[in-house]
Amino acid sequence: AVVSTQSTGMINTASLTMASQQHEQGESSSKGKRKATELSEFEAQLYDRGIRLWGVDAQKRIRESEILLIGFKAVNAEICKNIVLAGVQRVVIIDNELTTEGDLGANIFLTEEHINTKRGEAAVKNVQALNNLVTVETADLDLQNNEKVAEFVSQFHVVCVNGYSFETLCHLNETCRKANVYFFAVENFGLFGYFFEDLKQFEYKKLKEVPVLVGSDVKKTKVEEGTKSNSNNNKEEFEIKTAHYTPFQEVFTKTAWKTPKQQSVLFPAIHLLYLFQQQHKRFPLANNNQDISDLLKLKTSVAESYQIDPNLIKDDFIRSIAQNASSEVSSVSAIIGGICAQEIIKVISTNDEPFNNSFFFNGIENDGKVECLVPTQPQAVKQPPQTKPVETEIIEL
Questions:
Q1: Burial class (CB in 10 A: 0-12, 13-18, 19+), 140
Q2: Are 137 and 120 in contact (CB under 8 A)?
């Protein structure tokens, strides 16, 4: 098998085939969703670990969810592994790019026999082997056809995009917003990476802090309604919270850079990579001195437009980003994909507070940070030229 039992908890295929045949009885679909039926005995055993973590009702919601993965590079492959093992209803993969030798080092579902075949189609068999109760499919979709994209995306609860241009990410995010579909963008730049989530307006269940008398002290404990009463017979309860999210384009065009103490240095670095990609139609290449020089010029221009000292973002760090920008590292993809899959589980189960709205990982420092990035300027910062700074008016709010 491509993925070992130890690393993924691969499930016995024969048992799952029999269980899936039994499980299909009594199910129907509305917009591709299962009815909220009780979990079968087999499912209760199969997903026991998840049920212990997030509860039976959350597992039912997970089982009813459908996920679209656009681009099947290393991070989306890791996300796919985790959500299939968690027991979603359906995963659809869109990726018509041909598998290359470079994919084999980071993508856990691809082997040498898949070289020169479409990445999405090549991976399906190995993904399906993880859990036969989950429907795993590929689809062919022209992302330039706005009408078809909007119609197709509306079938899903979550869309996760990996390996596409800034313009495509903005377009897909806008499409998902209109269709009320949750959007994730993920990327691995060698030893660095990030993911972004836009849930538009999201309601989730949060355990409420209730005062409990312990001896002579009053302490706060988090409890959840409907499970059990505590030792003092206080009813356990929760509260519904609402979180508001910012679209991808606004975050990456209207959020001002700040000092490294105020903001992860990876945000301006990744912002620069997308600006570079818009100019060159690719990310910087390793050991390409001209690419590094262009990226450093962009750094100076944009930093001055935000009225911060360009030296706050070290040139050596930008050089490191440039060296890593066009590669994928399996261990870093596993970390980013694992945490992002956890976020997707939170979202489809509505069982916990999701990140709002970005996660950045620095593999050199082994450091991950959650950032809430919000626009700080009334107008988008235009793509800066490489020769002189952009004159952008800064308004203090």
A1: exposed
A2: no
